[in-house]
# Entry
Amino acid sequence: MALRRTTEEVVRLLTPEAFGWLMRDLREAAGMKIVQLARQIPCDSSLLSRYESAERQPKLTIVQQIDELLGTGGRLERAWHNTDWHREIEHPDWFKHFVKTEATAVSLREYQISRFPGLLQAPEYARALLARGPSRKDGPTLDQRVAARMSRQARFFLEDGPLAIFIIDEVVLRRMVGGRLVMIRQLKHTLDVIRRFPNIVVQIAPDELGERVAATMGFTLLELPNGTEVIYSESVDRGHFSRRPDAIERLSRAYDRLRADALSASESADLIRRTMEGLLNVSPELQPLPTAMSWFKSSYTGENGGQCVQTSHDLRPLGLMPIRDSKNPDGPALTFPTTSFSAFVNGVKSAGFDAI
# Structure
């Protein structure tokens, strides 16, 4: 980790965006696509995209691997040490008080009825939400707003991070934000987070609770290091804090009751997984696909056309196998679950289908 520096030294440091631009330029200069680099590390190509867009800080070991694979002579590692990873990212004025409080909380309990909580959002999901929100010409860019939201997650995404309990209304799992692919990524991201970090608990409030839900709007209960509790909620254009003991007592009781009525953590994970699999099962309609994808066809095919198809490994981390006509690369592509496609290929190999 780069050491904390004085104000005079920080002036000479790179910004995380500049580091991301350098990483992308070195990769492109080496003639390597992001998917190819990810395979050699190995890691998810979406993770490298986050590094290049300054949404995530890469670990030094990853940077050293990239330097070696690109043959940069350690240039990227030197830039990593000279990047101001500690800079303070700007949040909207009305939100700053909450971010400051959240950054010191020893525990957090949140109930969400409209969207995945910010601390659980994948970058693509956050981008889709923020792109629809208000913005100012002289305010932060969309990339900066996404980076600000991602920056809040760091202290919670630790094995010994603060306890964070999220109760999410089931409708959030089905509310399409950013399209089918973004939702698949968000659901997979949520499953990855709860699998990796025992301090994060996610429970789903099922539809059948009906009028028994705790409240008609979302809220967050935060416990501070001195034992003080705070309630936070949002209206259309501002945030609301309350330290009133009676309000805290009322919402704490409502939250505990909702936890008892909600699905357990394991049942909730199963529901999230089934929802994601449901999106995968109907993924032949998944459009549009990411534009920067590496397509290939069988090495047994020639260059004279014929009945050929192309596929790509870019979506394999999501459990997807896209297929398109090699003669019409700009046409539509079908996307199938990798398990279904593997079963089909194995069936063809074993002559499990009748010849037509």
The chain has three domains: 7-81, 93-281, 307-349. Residues 307-349 form one domain. Confidence is low (pLDDT under 50) at residues 1-12.
